[in-house]
């Protein structure tokens, strides 16, 4: 079994779990996102047909927002209700997020919506803030594996 296949198998959750997690507060969803991001070493986002990040413009914050989710099921739920034609859900490995994606999004002045759920608030942060949160969470996660 390849690393990708193992990650995909680990990341599978039931529809009952999806509903339960989508009903949680933005704080709880954010912690779950960090846990899953570190555990699976990937997160899900949306791409437009031109392979560019897909999201929306937030007039209040005057910036483009890119969503991320901990599992494919959440991104598909969002995609089914909010996405435009041709958008698709894609996993991005943790290393790629940290090394390439987040710096590029920071430079382009995007913000990240963490684990958005329709009809509920989510944390929106700078890519550099998410990178800091992930690096701090990763240290705790790695430490828990050792002890």
UniProtKB/TrEMBL annotation:
It holds the Pfam family DUF2750. InterPro entries: DUF2750. This is DUF2750 domain-containing protein. It comes from Parasulfitobacter algicola. The lineage of its organism: Bacteria, Pseudomonadati, Pseudomonadota, Alphaproteobacteria, Rhodobacterales.
């Amino acid at each position: 079994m390849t690393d990708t296949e193992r990650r995909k198998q680990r990341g599978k959750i039931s529809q009952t779990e999806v509903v339960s997690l989508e009903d949680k507060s933005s704080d709880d969803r954010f912690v779950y996102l960090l846990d899953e991001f570190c555990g699976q070493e990937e997160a899900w986002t949306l791409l437009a047909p031109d392979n560019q990040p897909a999201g929306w413009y937030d007039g209040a914050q005057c910036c483009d927002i890119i969503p991320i989710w901990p599992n494919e099921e959440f991104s598909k739920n969002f995609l089914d209700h909010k996405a435009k034609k041709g958008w698709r859900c894609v996993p991005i490995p943790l290393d790629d997020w940290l090394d390439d994606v987040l710096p590029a999004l920071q430079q382009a002045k995007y913000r990240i919506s963490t684990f958005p759920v329709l009809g509920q608030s989510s944390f929106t942060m700078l890519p550099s803030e998410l990178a800091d949160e992930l690096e701090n969470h990763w240290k705790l996660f790695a430490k828990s594996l050792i002890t």
